[in-house]
Amino acid sequence: xxxxxxxxxxxxxxxxxxxxxxxxxxxxxxxxxxxxxxxxxxxxxxxxxxxxxxxxxxxxxxxxxxxxxxxxxxxxxxxxxxxxxxxxxxxxxxxxxxxxxxxxxxxxxxxxxxxxxxxxxxxxxxxxxxxxxxxxxxxxxxxxxxxxxxxxxxxxxxxxxxxxxxxxxxxxxxxxxxxxxxxxxxxxxxxxxxxxxxxxxxxxxxxxxxxxxxxxxxxxxxxxxxxxxxxxxxxxxxxxxxxxxxxxxxxxxxxxxxxxxxxxxxxxxxxxxxxxxxxxxxxxxxxxxxxxxxxxxxxxxxxxxxxxxxxx
Length: 312
What we know:
six-stranded parallel sheet; Rossmann fold; alpha/beta
């Protein structure tokens, strides 16, 4: 009898270029599964029918156990949420679906960014200043799903993160959606959100930040979108911390920060650990297993070795 092959979909824009295609098989072996990964690339701003097609494909194909969705999280929610039997509270709260999994025949959508971003940001704070807490201001360039998730973490944990939260985006609709999602958590009026018509406005925002501020690239620029959200002459705040969500692509924002690391006394981080937290969380949902801290560190060690081998 032929054994059924089980799959997990990876839905994004440039999924075939991701290092996860090399990491995933090794992780799956360690987890004692035979799950296969199938990459699905959907262009930015695709039609609603495209998202519905893949939501229906996951729902009706028993061999597909779930999916990780990047870039299209908000579009999948807006266009295809009715295909789901259940949506987690986080998905409804933030209007996105980044994780798809099944329990028996029920298809569930969840926004897992909040969990993974908090873990990654605490580790960055710990490495930067020796504590998982910070009183520094945090500037988030980009009001998409991942940017809003970080802002939510900062605002809803107000005793842990006490600085101002400054957000920018080029799209008025995204800024409006971010305000609507976040205003109920802004109990101490720490949130500032603004539309930036071009990169020069982002430059002005970054250069107006106080010393020791954090600057985060949550725009997707440098990976799925060419370019950088700031110009190459922009100075990061002295003694600050720079977090590039991306770990691959052009990485212009990351390279600019690295060029100023010594002169501006910066701590600079890419998005690789955030990427690993995201994948391990979704895989744990899809396989219905627990990945504790000890197991995650083992998975991380394997991923870093693979990443370094392919980066040489």
